[in-house]
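Internal QA ticket QA-208
Title: Verify multi-chain structure generation after dependency bump
Assignee: T.L.

Test input:
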Amino acid sequence: MRPLLNNTRAIRHIRSYTYKTEPSKYPGHVPTNCLQKLFLAAGSGIYSFFNPRRGDLIATLGEATALPPLMYRLRDVMLSDPTGRRILRERPRITSKTLDIAALRKYPANTVGKVYSEWLDLEGVSPDTRAPVRYIDDAECAYVMQRYRECHDFYHAITGLPIIIEGEIALKMFEFANTLIPMTGIGAVLAPLRLKPKQRERLRTIYFPWAIKNGATAKPLINVYWEEVLDRDVQELRDELGIEKPPDLRQLRKLKISHL
Amino acid sequence: MGSTTGRKFSDIQSDVYDVVIVGGGVSGLTLAAALKASPYTSALKVALIEGMSLAPATKWDPSPDQLSNRVSSITPASQAFLQKIGVWDYVYPERVRQYDDMRVWDGVSGARIQFDSFQLDAAGAPMAYMTENLNLQQALLESLAEAPGDNQVKIFDSTKVEQITNSTDQLDDVDLSSWPAVKLSNGSTLRARLLIGADGVNSPVRSYAGIESRGWDYGQHGLVATLTMEWDDRQDIAWQRFLPTGPIALLPMPGGKASLVWSTTPKLAAHLKSLDPKAFCTLVNAAFRLELADLNYLYTRSDPEEIEAEFEWRDGMLPMEDEGAKFPVRVVEVQENTRASFPLRMRHCDSYVAPRVALVGDAAHTTHPLAGQGLNLGQGDVASLMSVIERAVVRGADIGDEVVLQEYWAERYPANHVMLGVVDKLQKLYCTDSKPVVALRSAGLEVVASMDWIKKLIMKQATGI
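Actual output:
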């Protein structure tokens, strides 16, 4: 009797859909096709929904859902700005090696560097906790995603939104309005389903309106060369970028205020 | 009998012509040459009036490394006509470059289409001949000078048309009333059995005939320039990229040169004209090679070194295999004083004919240069009008009779209207970067690009054969 899967052509045909991939385009690139991205997105999405602390899964979700037109749009935002172009050209990376955190701690109060280092200490995180980009198929767009990811902590610092889940969601909405990276939008819409009604109300009435308004009207944050503005006054930079500081989330939580 | 103006009979007779052509551009001169070349019409008495001096064309002494920026693309149909009337033999062949491949793409989406003569089942047959307008003009004037002495076209150059009126004269038994009388700046008045308006967009002949011209301005300027390429690409390819500000085309010319036609906003055209020559070349390269975001950024810069550095960085990221296949060889130099721009518009006359008047070329219609059809539509007009005049002469009809001329209008108007319309729609379709429009037009282009029979059909229309 003939084995069920003896037809090698059929197998090759199936393989051509599941395994066939492009050659690697940059170090660390894992080429994937549409179907594979779909699985990656579904898997990482579902798992990170129940484990929001799994930053690596959220990163994977971000890459698997990064629709090329939106990534090219964000890259074009950078290409249209002198600083953005310089960032793309020099491709700086933010790690504890490239950034001297100890020195930042000694910066004058209210400078970007000081606020950032305070924020790192307060939240107990380090710039090295960011995973490298693997699943974006264009080398330059991969760098744009990497840059967004490494600058994410600066966004926390400049907005003052804490790393607790509510702050994270509010910031995601802000980022979506500012960068249109799909994952940030997906996160901002789906993650609140896990919250308590009070928390959801706080997001809906206070933080989402702030995030959408500020994200959409502020200058593109992707074009900020953070390494070069560390000694600048944080409020001055906020004014320059067109960002209003949102109400202190930790305070509102303490006072159990869910709308202003 | 006798003249109502009181002038002598012989005065009038010397100033009476069968055909008076106003305009010494390519269309007007081609009609004159065609009239002299045909055995039926060579005996007609023909005058040609040109406001400017024709000496630059008659005494044209071209240097091999200089090219005029006034260049035209001549379709095989136009070339065949020029050959038929014996003009093509006078064209300097070393100043003609033909191309047999055309690559056109969407600057927003990158969707492409390639036309090559292999698809026309005519491998190596040219799609068009590129040459300077001066080369054509000198060939036309040369061929006119070859006609027997008593039968030559009387050329009045550096002579302006001051006024066109209806003649009131009576000549022998011919009633000259209703014949156009063309008063010239040299004092003489020519009476024409048939007056031809080959006098361009603001045609005085058209105003005289009271023919309405309709259309619109594209709000774009056509920037032309003569460029030197990094090396002479032996592939004879015409390149065109549709940018949202207008198409940019690079057409191969002899000796590793190329002719640029860059349709863009008037503001950008002015900026590009004033830019440092080296930076201008870099921007031309960028316009063919780089992303729109890069190009839009470079438009805002004016420091040549910065432009160069930005270009080199982005250009260095392009895949090697695209070189020479997806965009042209780099431009390295722009010939001095060849950057010029002019407003682009669409115009079409309600009619090409009136009693004793016919319009040809730009006087009858003006189009966007994106399809390289401007001169060729005029050549088509001349060929059609010629056959109408020939038939009238054979039948013994009056060549100025509107009924005779109507035939010319009936033949050319629909053909020109279709071409003007298609070019106009293409212009509108491509002058946007609206996402849904780009998606639709790119899908459409890819369908066309994958179907050879449609491409053949388009090529047939564009080459006229």
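Spot checks passed. The radius of gyration of chain A is 20 Å.
Status: verified.
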